[in-house]
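Question (not urgent): is this output format expected?
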Amino acid sequence: MSQEKLSQVTSELAPTGVLRAGINMGNFLLVTGKTASGDPQGVAPDMAAEIARRLGVPVAYVKYERPSQLADAAGTNAWDIGLIGAEPQRAAKIAFTPAYCEIEATYLVPPGSPLTKISDVDRPGIRIASRRGAAYGLWLERNIKQATLILSESAEAPFEQFVTEKLEAYGALRPQLLTEANKLPGSRILSGNFMTVQQAIGTGKTNTAGAAFLSEFVAEAKKSGLVARLIEKHHVKGLSVAP
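Got this back:
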C-alpha cells in the first residue's frame, strides 16, 4: 500500500490516532477472556489488534455487553471499527467486510418434542425463545412467519423462559445450545442450522477507503490462515473460518 493510501485509510479508521475497536463482550466464542486490566482477549480483539498494527497505531477496545448496543452506537463517533455479525438491519448504518468467521444457529427442543428438523419449527402454535438484538434473533424476526417469537434482552433469559414456560423451541448459537442442553436432560439440538452468523468487521458508511482496506485485510487474513490460527490459539469450538 502506498504511503498516500495508508495515510487516507488511517485518517478514516483512526482519526484520533488510536484505532477504537467496538467489541461485543457477550460473544463467548470471539471474546474468550479478559486481561488483568479488563481488556478483552480472543479472536475478535486479536483481529482488531492486527489491523491497528498494520496501520501503525495503538488499539483501544470499546466494550459492549450486547451486539445491539454496539450496532446502535454506529455513527455516534463511539468506535472506529466494530467486530459484529453482519446483518441487513445493521448494514443500513455500517459498511461491513465479508465475514471472517461464521457460527451456526439452530434450535433446542424439549424432551419428547415432535419437532425433528429445522423446517418443523415455523408453524402455528410453536413458540420460539431467542435473544433480542443478536444476529440470529434479527434473522428470526425477519424470517419467522407462522410461529410466535418470544424475545428476551439478556443472554440467560431465553433459556430460562424456554424451560419455565415450556416453550416449543429455543433458537441460539449451536455452541451455546450444547452447553444449555446439559441443563435439560432429554432435550435435543436439531441438526443443520436456520442461519449462520457471519462475523465481520464494520466501519462508518463514509469511510470508503477504510472499508476497502478492511475488506482486503479480511480476505488476506482468511487466505493466509491468520483467522484459523487465532481460532486455534484461543481453543474455540463451534467457530469456523468463513468461506
